[in-house]
Amino acid sequence: MLELNYSLVVQAVLFVALWLALKRFWFDPALRVIAERAKRSEGQVAEARKLEAEIEGMRQEHQAALQHARTEAQREVADIMRRAEAEQKQLLAQANDEAQRMLADMRTRVAEEVATARKTLSADVGTLAREVARTVMGRAV
């Protein structure tokens, strides 16, 4: 059986003394270090989450800025295209007007030349007719 003697009491006292010594010099400091590390880690994790949130906000701002820039560029391209089409229509209208004016000038000049040629020919028709008749008949008419 189990005897309660002096060695059991000594062992119990030594165990309690060892427990108290280890607790004071080993367990408590180790637990403090672990608690400090956990606190530091929690702080760093919170800081990391805060940075992630900030990065996400910046990413969204960046995306919004890119979208705005794309929209602005598309608007400017459309505006440039509208202006280019208007300028093209204007240039075509000017070229058409110039061509019509030149055509009218040429028709006027041709008409004047035809009129001048008719006057010259009508003045010379009598002379030419007599010359042709003289050549055909062989005598002066």
Q: How is this structure best described in words?
A:
94% of the residues lie in helices and 0% in strands. The chain has one helix spanning 6-137. By secondary structure, it is mainly α. It has one helix and no strands. The protein has a domain at 12-102.
Number of strands: 0
Q: What structural class results from the helix and strand content?
A: mainly alpha
Summed up, the helix count is 1
Q: What profile does the largest beta sheet have?
A: none
Q: How would you describe the shape?
A: rod-shaped
Helix content: over 70%
* Radius of gyration, whole Å: 58 Å
What is the overall pLDDT average? 90
How much of the polypeptide forms β-strand, as a percent range? under 5%
The CA-CA distance between the termini, in Å, is 183 Å
Helix and strand pattern: H
Weakly predicted, low-confidence segments: none
Write a compact overview of the structure shown.
By secondary structure, the chain is mainly α.
